[in-house]
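Researcher: We plan to redesign the surface later, but first we want a full-length starting point. Tokens attached.
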């Protein structure tokens, strides 16, 4: 029990896990899982749902939890030693799960369950889990034979290796770049950013200057506010050429991307599909790549007039007010911020002073507690960094005795950017809700990870309104995972939810960031403590759909590029030509020829969104329509909150997402609410 990864404690001992623990623990757990697989597929275990779960699910869940802890640390606390340990174990873990998913003996037992009388006796959640399992066996190559099966397994192993390499290249390229700027170069940049970059330079032993990096808490405000055009160009060029041929060869993702796409196409052919996009859509809501492309092009058609107007206004303003007659890509964020300030008489920097992290968290927790009848309280658990916090969520029963609470779930919050931490924001699960075969209810635990600017000079961290929206977004994912009332682990929470519906609860939560009754309770000026003035909020609200046309086209551009390179084998051969073609069709704003956005597009090359990036816009239709119910019946109406919680959050993946949506809304989704929310209604 000295190895923390083998500890059967309820929560991982993140503070005690060391790289040296990885190999022995994963080897032991793989051996345990392999033994469980052999037993489950042998004559001693009947083709019975409970019997299989008691043997196999217990062992694989234990392996999954330990490997999840290692993967998580690799993403948030990367070191050369941990990376080496992770990379060594990755092929073994991949091989086991590939073998598990394609095991003919196990598939035969599941087919016997599905075709037998027992299937009818299973509850709805188990029937859905069984249906998903049957589908996934086919997609995992269980029906392949001989050389085809061997090749399929080899493809999975290589794809895991390449996905890890892609992610490492992006992280390393982001961490490797820095520029020491002078005070003069940073004219116009907010004080809190200047303080942080000066502290970073001092930490490197520099007596003067400011250390700039490509991490978002530095990169974004410099691009928005730095008056020095040359500095903006320097940062922009470094950012959009990360992990490309413009940098060191060992971090170039060019060949990695091509090989990933070739392997995905080969995998699809082995499974009998025309493209990887078709494979990707099997477990999703969308029916075909053509349906997705039609949806995206329709959205682009609706957004284009708004985007063209956005761009014309920006160019006119940049020319007349900023003297920028040749607006370039590195000017866009700066000119846009200046235009927004001129039009709406406020700046993001002014707003940021009111969103202190403690106050934002309190406001976020308040809305969740009000609508979903839960209580959020600090809790304790071992963590991987001193800035990480841990909380518990308890169910509160309005009809029950005063103070009666029941644990629903727990979560870690890791808010700040730092070296060795993957860029972006995400929610991941530590464990899922499960009525364990050996008895007892396992409650869910989530990790909420962001990359905000850390506190400086003893003051609380300041969040931009975009940061606040990001926090609400990730918390929406967390609620989906933690508030589930499904006891079957394969379809509890986010498990088993169609990928193009999984963003519904996250994007739904973003809407609350635009409600005055929410915002006024989660703001306090960092110096005066005064809440955000209503007049300033009204200006923010007026600016809510500022450049929404451009932003929509940008997301459609990414989604259509993703779908095309996975649906059209020819488009995957020359990736740059493909993204250029999509931009000519969709974008009104063309980036410079050196832009290599795709080289750091981790969502589709290393993050599970392959032929699925459209999910953000697809699910946005669902989330906007779901939120419209609150607008119609009362944003703070607990009855609506209860209905949403029960129909969508608690149901998790136990039924098709469209059924959950209709259970809440009473009808099919409509695009009207999305267009209205984004100021693009006809």
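Model: Full-length starting sequence:
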């Amino acid at each position: 029990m000295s190895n923390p990864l083998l500890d059967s404690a309820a929560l991982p001992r993140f503070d005690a896990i060391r790289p040296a623990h990885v190999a022995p623990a994963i080897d032991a757990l793989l051996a345990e899982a392999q033994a469980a697989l052999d037993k489950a597929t042998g004559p001693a275990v009947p083709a019975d749902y409970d019997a299989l779960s008691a043997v196999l699910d217990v062992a694989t869940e234990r392996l999954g939890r330990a490997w999840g802890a290692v993967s998580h640390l690799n993403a948030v606390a990367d070191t050369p030693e941990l990376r080496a340990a992770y990379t060594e174990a990755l092929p073994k873990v991949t091989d086991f799960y590939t073998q598990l998913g394609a095991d003919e003996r196990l598939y035969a037992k599941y087919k016997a369950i599905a075709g037998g009388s027992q299937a009818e006796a299973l509850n709805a959640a188990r029937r859905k889990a069984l249906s998903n399992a049957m589908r996934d066996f086919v997609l995992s190559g269980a029906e392949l034979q001989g050389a085809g099966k061997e090749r399929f397994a080899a493809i999975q192993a290589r794809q895991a290796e390449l996905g890890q390499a892609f992610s490492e290249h992006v992280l390393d390229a982001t961490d490797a770049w820095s520029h020491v700027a002078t005070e003069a170069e940073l004219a116009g940049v907010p004080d809190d950013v200047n303080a942080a970059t000066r502290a970073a330079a001092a930490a490197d032993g520099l007596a003067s200057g400011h250390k700039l990096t490509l991490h978002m808490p530095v990169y974004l405000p410099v691009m928005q506010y730095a008056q020095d055009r040359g500095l903006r160009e320097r940062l922009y060029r470094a950012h959009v050429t990360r992990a490309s041929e413009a940098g060191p060869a060992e971090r170039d993702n060019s060949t990695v991307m091509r090989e990933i796409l070739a392997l995905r196409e080969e995998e699809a052919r082995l499974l009998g599909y025309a493209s990887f996009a078709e494979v990707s859509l099997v477990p999703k809501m969308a029916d075909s790549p053509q349906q997705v492309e039609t949806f995206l092009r329709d959205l682009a058609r609706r957004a284009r007039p708004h985007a063209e107007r956005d761009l014309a206004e920006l160019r006119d303003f940049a020319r007349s007010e900023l003297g920028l007659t040749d607006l370039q890509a590195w000017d866009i964020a700066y000119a846009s911020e200046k235009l927004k300030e001129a039009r709406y008489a406020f700046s993001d920097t002014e707003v940021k002073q009111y969103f202190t992290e403690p106050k934002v968290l309190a406001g976020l927790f308040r809305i969740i507690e009000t609508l979903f009848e839960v209580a959020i309280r600090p809790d304790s658990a071992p963590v991987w960094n001193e800035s990480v916090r841990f909380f518990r969520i308890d169910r509160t029963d309005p009809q029950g005795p005063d103070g009666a609470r029941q644990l629903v779930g727990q979560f870690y919050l890791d808010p700040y950017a730092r070296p060795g931490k993957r860029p972006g924001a995400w929610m991941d699960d530590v464990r899922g809700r499960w009525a364990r075969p050996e008895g007892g209810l396992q409650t869910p635990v989530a990790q909420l990870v962001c990359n905000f600017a850390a506190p400086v000079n003893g003051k609380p961290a300041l969040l931009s309104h975009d940061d606040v929206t990001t926090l609400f977004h990730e918390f929406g994912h967390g609620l989906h995972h933690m508030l589930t009332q499904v006891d079957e682990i394969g379809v509890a929470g986010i498990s088993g939810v169609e990928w193009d519906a999984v963003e519904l609860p996250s994007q739904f939560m973003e809407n609350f960031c635009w409600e005055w009754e929410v915002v006024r309770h989660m703001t306090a000026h960092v110096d005066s403590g005064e809440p955000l003035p209503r007049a300033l909020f009204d200006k923010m609200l007026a600016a809510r759909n500022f450049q929404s046309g451009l932003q929509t086209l940008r997301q459609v551009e990414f989604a259509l590029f993703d779908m095309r390179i996975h649906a059209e084998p020819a488009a995957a051969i020359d990736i740059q030509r493909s993204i250029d073609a999509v931009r000519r069709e969709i974008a009104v704003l063309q980036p410079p020829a050196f832009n290599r956005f795709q080289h750091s597009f981790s969502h589709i090359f290393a993050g599970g969104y392959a032929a699925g990036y459209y999910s953000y816009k697809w699910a946005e239709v669902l989330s906007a329509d779901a939120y419209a119910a609150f607008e119609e019946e009362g944003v703070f109406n607990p009855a609506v909150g209860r209905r949403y919680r029960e129909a969508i959050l608690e149901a998790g993946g136990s039924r098709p997402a469209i059924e959950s949506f209709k259970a809440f809304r009473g009808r099919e989704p409509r695009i009207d609410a999305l267009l209205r929310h984004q100021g693009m209604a006809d």
